[in-house]
Amino acid sequence: MEKVSSPSSSRRSAYLEALTQEIKKKLTRAVVSPAQTRNLLQDLFADIALEVDERAKDVLLSKEEDVISDEADTDGPLCFFDVLADYYVKVSERGKDILDLMVQLWSQSFASHIFSLLFHKWLFEVELENQEILLRYSSALVQGATNVFWIDIQTNTRRFQTLFRYLLEEVALEPTRLKNIPIQAQRELYLLLSRFIFFYNSVDRLDSFLRNFPEFPNAFLVGGAGDFLVIELTDQLQKLKVEPVLLHYLSQMKILQGMELRMTTSTRLKACLYSFTSPGGPMYPTRAVRHAAWDALDSLFPVGRYPRHLISLFFRLLYPWYWPSSCWNFVVSCIKAVLYSIVRLIFSRREKPRQS
């Protein structure tokens, strides 16, 4: 007997098919109208990155899936690209026309963004025999994922966290899927994940991530997996301009404590953190960033802690225009410390009679 699809399943398929047709229309217009290509692709990217509203959820998700999606809110909002990515894995022929159009727009802005969102699961679930095409798709995935992750960083949101989690947990930590892409793409993917693993709060997977790190041809010069991770993180820190994101990275740096690193890598990390401890150029860190950098530096490199602070104080004295703000912050800190001590003393005295 033929299996009869439920009405909800039919509605879902029809809705996803309508979305697919709309995507094809926009991509076709982008191909035939070069002057409007960038705007059309940008609009399409914005559309598929939208969060699924409640009305669309009623169509796209069953009751069981709805419960799962509510529980998964900590991984970021459910967006249209999440649903479409699953759809193009289950019904791979529906994405073929879109892929053909994407190839024609390969060099355009936002093309890699769209590809990484719609086909990141398809790439690892569907077997491709042509290695040249596979390498092209893999490179586009890494490039597109890099771009969308940077959008999250610039806006200090985690809209694309589901993409990161899939690449980390379902690909990087699953050798069977990882082997579906060429070794060159595997290395690029691991370097990408190294740069954003702190931002997407995945440090709990760091040990497994480092154990599965692929071999690099220049490993004898650079070092082990930990060295590659730290090098990517230090480069990432130098590029961050959003203060909350930078503070988040610095607060996560303590997880590197005890990691075996080469001397050159350790020095590189120390120099990177030290560059955030002084006001002014080239980083121009805020006071909060400077304190977070000092905390990370003292935690990772406790030896020489006090000499570093003395040297920093000496150099601060060479810039008189920083004295007023430094004195003011020092006075405020002292007042806060005294007030906190008085409050603790009052509460401790109140609790003693109760205990007696």
Major β-sheet profile: none
- Helix fraction? 55-70%
- Name the shape in a single word: globular
Would you count the extended β strands for me? 0
Please identify the structural class as seen in this structure.
mainly alpha
Radius of gyration from CA coordinates: 26 Å
Mean pLDDT: 85
Helical stretch count? 20
Unreliable stretches (pLDDT < 50, length at least 5) are: 63-74
Proportion of beta-strand residues: under 5%
The ordered string of helix (H) and strand (E) elements is HHHHHHHHHHHHHHHHHHHH
- The rounded distance between the terminal residues' Cα atoms is 80 Å
Protein name: K-stimulated pyrophosphate-energized sodium pump protein
Organism: Brassica campestris
Transmembrane segments: 328-347
Keywords: Membrane, Transmembrane, Transmembrane helix
How are the SSEs placed, and which strands pair?
Elements: H1 7-32, H2 37-48, H3 54-60, H4 63-71, H5 80-90, H6 96-104, H7 111-119, H8 122-125, H9 131-155, H10 161-172, H11 175-178, H12 183-196, H13 206-211, H14 219-222, H15 225-239, H16 243-252, H17 263-274, H18 287-300, H19 305-317, H20 323-355
Helix pairs in contact: 1-2, 1-6, 2-7, 7-9, 9-12, 10-12, 12-15, 15-17, 16-18
